[in-house]
Write a structure and sequence with these properties.
Layout lengths: L16 H5 L13 H15 L6 H24 L3 H14 L4 H14 L2 H8 L1
Length: 125
């Protein structure tokens, strides 16, 4: 079955620029804003940028704590012999903290236990 695109120029659905240009007082037209309105918009924009932003250190500590929680859950599952479930928990922890060498080693060991030597090699390097 061959698919083709219709290149019918008479069925052009785009608006012409003349239609838009005939309405000069649209609400998004910046030339009509007074100086006071521009200052108010700038202040609102600056205020909204500084609202409710947690610090980078707080986010890092939250990610680290969450990753450690997932790692502990994975460790418990691996001790119980539930390697696939442990691997899922460790994958989640690695998404949060990809540079964690201990998690990468544990992932490689579990993949070896499950018979996935190539996956273990990729996880270890």
């Amino acid at each position: 079955m061959k698919l083709t695109w219709n290149k019918n120029k008479s069925n052009n659905k785009k608006r012409s620029r003349e239609a838009i240009a005939s309405y000069p007082n649209l609400p998004f037209d910046l030339q009509d804003l007074s100086h006071d309105d521009m200052q108010l918009q700038n202040q609102e924009h600056a205020h909204s940028q500084h609202q409710d932003k947690p610090s980078a250190d707080a986010l890092d500590s939250d990610f680290k704590q969450l990753a450690q929680s997932f790692q502990a859950q994975g460790n418990k599952l691996a001790e119980d012999g539930k390697y696939r479930e442990a691997l899922g928990k460790w994958e989640t922890a690695l998404n949060l903290m990809p540079e964690n060498a201990v998690l990468l080693e544990q992932k490689a060991q579990v993949l070896l236990e499950l018979g996935d030597a190539w996956g273990a090699l990729k996880a270890a390097t």
